[in-house]
Design brief:
The longest helix has 20 residues, at 326-345. This protein has 441 residues and is an alpha/beta fold. α14 (381-391) crosses α15. The protein has helices at 37-40, 49-61, 73-85, 99-116, 137-142, 146-149, 167-170, 177-195, 222-233, 254-258, 285-293, 308-323, 326-345, 381-391, 421-439; strands spanning 16-20, 23-26, 31-34, 90-96, 124-128, 160-162, 200-205, 208-209, 216-217, 236-240, 264-267, 279-284, 351-357, 360-365, 394-395, 397-400, 409-413. Helix content is 39%, strand content 17%. Bound molecules: pyridoxal-5'-phosphate. Pyridoxal-5'-phosphate is lined by residues 39, 98-100, 103, 132-134, 206, 210-211, 240, 242-243, 268. InterPro entries: Aminotrans_3, Aminotrans_3_PPA_site, PyrdxlP-dep_Trfase, PyrdxlP-dep_Trfase_major, PyrdxlP-dep_Trfase_small. Its cofactor is pyridoxal 5'-phosphate. Keywords: Aminotransferase, Pyridoxal phosphate, Transferase.
Amino acid sequence: MSHVFHRNLRQSYPTAVKGDGAYLIDSEGKSYLDACGGAAVSCLGHSHPAVIKAIQQQVSKLAYAHSSFFTSEPMEQLADWLIERAPAGLESVYFVSGGSEAVEAALKLARQYYLEKGQPQRRHIIARRQSYHGNTLGALATGGNAWRRQPFEPLLMEVSHVSPCYAYRGQQEGESAEAYGQRLVAELEQEILRLGSDNVMAFVAEPVVGATLGAVTAVPGYFKGIRALCDRYGILLLLDEVMCGMGRTGYLFAAEYEGISPDLLCIAKGLGAGYQPIGATLVSGEIVNTLRNGSGFFQHGHTYIGHATACAAALAVMKTIEKDELLTQVQRLGHGLHERLQAQFDQHPHIGNIRGRGLFWGLELVADRDSKAAFDPNLKVHAKIKQAAMQAGLMCYPMGGTLDGRQGDHILLAPPFILTDSQLDELVDKLGQACQQVLAR
Ligand SMILES: Cc1ncc(COP(=O)(O)O)c(C=O)c1O
């Protein structure tokens, strides 16, 4: 029996032994097309020579130096690279080892900023239902997925949750997309006023909602309205691009598409592309300067901040995305994937909605297309599709609880940026087989 505390203690997992481009290969020799990057991580596939070389070179020179003693070349270079391309106003990068750590750092930084700015009463966080911001306690409290939160509720700090921007279910008949977006902005304003606008610290949102909703993009004007509202009340806008950032949507930063700049921006996953664990919080000049002119330091930290090997890997990932013009490729492949998904599933009686951007797509499963009724959660349709897809040699990322943490199912797709057109065909074909096997029953 394994001594590993696996995610599911009743399940046995195939042993992954090799990565080969867009495929993972197990110890039996079976290969799986990785159409979800694990959880939107492996954006360059699994054996990219440039990243492997950068890691080997860095580790043979300097693997790690603790950030309370030293800075390092890869950490400085990666910060320069990111800030040169980041939305306007972001000026510093706080490196961590993953997405939850990036969100925790951003929340604590928001709090410390207001303390040093002489507004200690600002402590409320507002986020959205059906969001996911990580599993550490602060990030979990911020997230709005009821199922993930429920067992730990007594341990979670108080956070307000407003509606997500989820047109498939939230936009009313006869309401334009723009009017829907503005209705949601007004809902946020109501919540700000209820809490007292001087007491609110930050609004937190994923520009494209990933794991818990399945690649849900916002309607036009929504994020511009949110930015303006935060500015009006002096509230920080914290965008969580842990899943949707680093090229996944066809833009290096998902916020670019929305034409806005946040005050704090979290990234991870595609930053290290799975070659190294790394995340980061990008911080506005206003926040950094307030701390610089105040206490002079951020009262936070982890052992592996700015790990030299992780930064070298991430820098190689970023340079590869740019050198190989992968953002353009993501946009092109994204159109191709969307077309193929439409062709395969548009008339499917149990696919209610296909949505996404770039190489980040979601399919929402329904028992009935007209009423949009969800499947009985006890059927665990999402889990069955994951299993059927694995049998067919395909990794996709189905999840339940799409509507409210309990009801609803979706499938998330986040394939690598290096996919070929024939692999797009293979992806949709295998997904079709898996859906057929489960949904035809
Ligand atoms: C939007 C978002 N934020 C935060 C996280 C947490 O990241 P990690 O699992 O690296 O801690 C995730 C992970 O799925 C995520 O999708």
